[in-house]
Amino acid sequence: MAVSIPVRRILSFYKKRDTKEYHGQYLCKSRAFRASFIKCTFRHVNFKGSIMTSCSFKDSSFIGCDFWGTNFRRSSFRNARFRNCVFVGTLLNGCNFGGATFDNCTFVNTNLNAAKGISISNTVSLLYSYPSPIVSDQLARVLAELSALPYLLRYRLLHLSTQKYNMLNLALLLSAHSEGFLIEQLPRLSWGAKTCTFGAILDKLGRIRQV
Length: 211
What we know:
Layout: E1 11-13, E2 21-23, E3 31-33, E4 41-43, E5 51-53, E6 61-63, E7 66-68, E8 81-83, E9 86-88, E10 101-103, E11 106-108, E12 125-127, H1 137-146, H2 150-155, E13 159-161, E14 164-165, H3 167-176, H4 179-185, H5 198-210
């Protein structure tokens, strides 16, 4: 039986958003222009392919969010906080990041020089090409089993297709955890609708580590 994948989109133009908390939402291809998201919290939100230009995200928090191909041109992120976020080919031209902080974030093929006020800490990774981690036969078998899960494949967290891995996310996972730990724990995670970002996987594995 086919599983219906929930896809929500923000459509906001010239107005203030009433919603202050966004948690575990797949907001791909959202559209916003001159909208206000001041003091909002975005936790495990996937902004893949969204276009949200000339918006204000002042004093907002982004925890474990994915920004693959997201267009934020001319938006303001003054005093915003980013933790465990992944930026891939993100357009930041004319954005203002004055006072913003980044903790354990990864930027891939993203021009930070096009934005203003970005301060990069030593917990931030800047990549200009996709990594090519070595996938053992045992890990490959685990990934093959997981590729049958509809949510996981739809969100493309570990696979870009049934035949192609998401090498970036795999490399990030292997840098944070041992391969043996991933082989043991990835099949045990709950892969529901709200596990829609790399940061969500990272948080779940981190909680297991703490037990």
